[in-house]
Amino acid sequence: MANKKYDLIAVGRACVDLNAVEYNRPMEETMTFSKYVGGSPANIAIGASKLGLKCGFIGKIPDDQHGRFITDYMGKVGVDTSNFVLDTEGRKTGLAFTEILSPEECSILMYRDNVADLYLDPSEVNEEYIKEAKMLVVSGTGLAQSPSREAVLKAVSIARENQVKVVFELDYRPYTWKNAEETSIYYALVAEQSDVVIGTRDEYNMLENVENGSNDVTVDYLFSHRPELLVIKHGVQGSYAYTKDGQTFATKAYKSNVLKTFGAGDSYAAAFIYALSQGKDIQTALQYGSASAAIVVSKHSSSEAMPTVEQIEQLMAEQAE
Ligand SMILES: Nc1ncnc2c1ncn2[C@@H]1O[C@H](COP(=O)(O)OP(=O)(O)O)[C@@H](O)[C@H]1O
Ligand SMILES: O=C(O)C[C@@H](O)[C@H](O)C(=O)COP(=O)(O)O
Fold first, then answer.
1. To test the ligand 2 pocket, which listed residue (19, 97, 233, 266) has its Cβ within 8 A of the most ligand atoms?
2. Which pLDDT tens digit goes with each residue over 270-282?
3. Number of structural domains, the chain?
4. Residues 89, 141: Cα–Cα separation, whole Å
5. Does residue 289 form part of some domain?
6. In this predicted complex, what is the ipTM?
7. Cα→Cα distances 67→71, 263, 321, Å
8. CA 253 to ligand 1 centroid distance, Å
9. What is the dihedral of CA 95, 101, 106, 108, to 10 degrees?
10. Domain carrying residue 173
11. Which phi-psi region, left, alpha or beta, contains residue 78 (left: φ > 0; alpha: ψ -120 to 50)?
12. CATH number of the domain bearing residue 176
């Protein structure tokens, strides 16, 4: 393990976020947006790289200005972009326009028709690359459509064969899926084969195809399969981790001067994964995730706002109980 080239390789979408510059108003009245790299798995790789992990990425991007913006930015923050595949068939970068109605009411308007990321082909997933990683981070959205679905399933299977840990970030985006039943089938397929699953309570409900699931039922179900560690997030109410040997850990959300809500999940995942990979215990890893999210929700972007280790530890110290 120790001599692997990458701490993690993420697979899925690398896109563009266009975040409202004018706060506290509907998008109809928002005239200016700032551009950032986005897409949940890209955000996680960027966040983890900023924390000092060696990160790589597998994804398809267009051969155009947006694709080059994404590649340049991710390269600059230290993510290896050698396994970006260029789409040459005119497909586009996914766009996420964000609306900040108030610090609590935010929404995302996604433009994801004909997006390059969902056309990653299984033949473009390189086994030798995945073998070089300690961990494969899979985002649920990559399972929404073929051929990206098969590409992700291939990546998971390579990881399993080569003792690369699979971390499944549920990352449910309704827009890309046909219906709840289909989502549940593919989520369950990958969750059951993963080592670690991270998601919100609502995302686990999608996985289980239930309206109001309970953490106890989720834990019983997934621990009868491969996962050893589950993280279930409950927004501002905090988050829980469960281990297969029966332990439960909980942490609060840190106080934050909230500007917007998006970016919380990705920054949480990046810092949680970072802490675990540094050998921190699970309780501490939850706190890293939670503190990282509290920092990002106070800032304008998701990717650019990803904190440093020092910023996370400072917040944890300031708000220690
Ligand atoms: N308003 C908030 N203030 C501080 N921390 C927050 C806030 N909202 C979310 N968080 C933190 O981010 C984590 C993930 O948030 P959540 O909303 O559950 O995820 P997602 O962004 O994936 O929907 C939470 O467990 C919490 O620690
Ligand atoms: O994942 C996307 O395509 C959009 C993201 O880039 C955006 O920054 C966002 O919504 C992140 O939110 P999170 O899942 O709450 O971290």
1. 266
2. 999 999 999 999 9
3. 1
4. 21
5. yes
6. 0.97
7. 6, 21, 45
8. 7
9. -20
10. 6-13+39-92+113-319
11. left
12. 3.40.1190.20
